[in-house]
């Protein structure tokens, strides 16, 4: 019996839940960590049942699903809503919720309050925060509040306006030193892992080698301890040109478009629904109807 069938029957799965410790063991054993975003129940089930280690409900939901221009407008309520849906579909992977822009920048208290909401109200097992040393105090306070935190440095999409666009970071010696110091600060503050986004492969390799906690790369080359991509990038569902670092594994847009056009044509041509796709009256009710129709016709004639 497949894992999916077992789950459909409500039976416990044999796959144990991924924890921060599992990620650490994988780093130490040199086994790559697999991670992917998900934003709703069906994609969460697919990702989880494929055995992906970490599911991130990224604030990329704003662009991938909600149609925003960038991640800045995403709210706590939107993130909680999507994280709850994902948590209903995830049983194996470590479930991480992204702290949206504005939920932790103003004060440490804001950060603790909002991270606590993810833990209490959404089923998340960890939160992710963009930024390095400047948020190290918050990471330490969250650790003390029993909230596992994943750091995120390099190209941090919430800093799009400061960066002047989505640009590769850490290309100068000075910028490399700052990012290395960011990673050290996050590790010292108790982060369970660090996302490295949009940085040169060579820098990611150095940070990964020096870091005691796992690094998870996106646009950071193959030498990180793990890789993460955005679900919609994998399936060509973004309606924008793909970034150099993302690999398209299937053309979901073409697949869905073909099916939608076929459905449109079937309805327009009256090929859908068929008789087999229709409900019918029970035989005795049909017989009764025929009888009463016949009687009615007879009375009308008389
Ligand atoms: O929001 C997101 O999806 C992310 C990943 C790209 C790491 O932060």
Give your account of this protein's structure:
- With 302 residues, this protein is α/β, with parallel strands linked by helices.
- It has 2 domains: 232 residues, Phosphoenolpyruvate-binding domains (TIM Barrel, Alpha-Beta Barrel); 46 residues, no CATH class.
- It is built from 13 helices and 8 strands.
- It has an 8-stranded parallel β-barrel with strand order 1-2-3-4-5-6-7-8, surrounded by 7 helices.
- The N terminus is likely disordered.
- The structure holds 3-methyl-2-oxobutanoic acid (KIV).
- The site of 3-methyl-2-oxobutanoic acid has 12 residues, from strand 6.
- 3-methyl-2-oxobutanoic acid binds next to strand 6.
CATH topology annotation of the largest domain = TIM Barrel
Structural class: alpha/beta
E-strand count: 8
Task: Please summarize the sheet with the most strands.
Answer: 8 strands, parallel, barrel
The CATH superfamily of the largest domain is known as Phosphoenolpyruvate-binding domains
- SSE order, one letter for each helix or strand: HHEHEHHEHEHEHHEHEEHHH
Molecular shape:
elongated
Low-pLDDT ranges: 1-6
